[in-house]
Specification:
Layout: E1 5-8, E2 11-14, H1 15-58, H2 65-92, H3 96-135
Antiparallel strand pairs: 1-2
Helix pairs in contact: 1-2, 2-3
């Protein structure tokens, strides 16, 4: 590796020093993004637990799918943040080993995210007719089923 030294108003700046500073900054950013991902997961767990407790106390016999969907949204966001942290980590010191690990992690997390999102859509689609059925009865006053 070569080093470039340049005197700027009495300061000696080298390429290696600048590169090291950028690497440290990216590592701090990666740590911040990983921490945010963990906070999102923890928040999702707290929200889900409170939702389950409220459901157990007040809404027995009804579906707890909205709680699952809410938790799934937190997990989806956390997966995105964790993947971003992995990309940052690899961008600082890209070796073939790190690139391979990133590729494997990206495929796994993307697959998890895809199936989680698909399950969320399926659950929402299953919940909508049930919710609409409770909101309006088929023979509600003022509504005619003729002419359709």
């Amino acid at each position: 590796m070569f080093t470039i030294h340049r005197d700027v108003e009495g300061l000696s700046v080298s390429y290696a020093d600048a590169e090291e500073s950028v690497q440290r900054a990216v590592e701090w950013l990666r740590l911040l993004v990983e921490t945010l991902g963990a906070i999102v997961i923890a928040t999702g767990i707290v929200v889900a637990v409170f939702g389950l407790i409220r459901h157990a106390l007040h809404a027995r016999g009804t579906s707890f799918t909205p709680i699952r969907l809410s938790f799934a949204r937190f997990l989806t966001l956390a997966l995105e943040l964790q993947l971003a942290a992995d990309i940052l980590s690899t961008s600082v010191a890209p070796t073939w080993e790190r690139i391979g690990k990133l590729a494997a992690i990206a495929v796994i997390r993307t697959a998890l995210n895809y199936f989680l999102s698909r399950e969320m859509k399926d659950e929402q689609a299953a919940e909508e007719p049930a919710l609409r059925g409770h909101a309006t009865a088929p023979d509600a006053p003022g509504k005619s089923s003729r002419g359709r």
